[in-house]
Please model this.
Amino acid sequence: MINIVLFGKPGAGKGTQAEFLKDKYNLVHLSTGDIFRFNIKNDTDLGRLAKTYMDKGDLVPDTVTIQMLQSEVDKNPQAAGFLFDGFPRTLAQAEALDTFLVTKGEKITATIALDADDEILVQRLLERGKTSGRPDDQDEEKIRNRYQEYNEKTAPLIHFYEGQNKYYAVNGIGTIQEITERLSLIIDKL
Model:
């Protein structure tokens, strides 16, 4: 089984690349953003709670996110592997994911980061916000708040996964196909 964490700031292209990688490597794509949006759209308790944080550009608390993700993994017992998109975002989430996967006899195979300049990403999100309907993609201040949250809470994961020899960085600027090829070069060697 191959389990990959796709890592990067909001707007780096994780969701776009995950669509190609899940098919190419027969992985179950677990996007916390998609799962939260599904719950928001269907007005579940989790959705209402997540929305209060997302509307401010804040991260949803670890306990809520971890329980939600464990439930999604449990729904796919026959999976050949998982592609985690948008999770983990904090050291506590990474440790909880490792602990949970051990109970399944599994582990994270690699963490691959899509690196890109903040200013390019801000413009990408503002463009996406014109069609996505997502309030957190339409306000530059909220976008920059998300990057601040990322720098404070998510960037430390680089050292966590480097310490396990599982961290790989990929240039996230270029055509979708170029970036997919860069990611595939890493995954094919795992």
Residues 93 and 129 are 27 Å apart (CA to CA). The domain at 2-187 is CATH 3.40.50.300 (Rossmann fold). The first helix runs from residue 14 to 25.
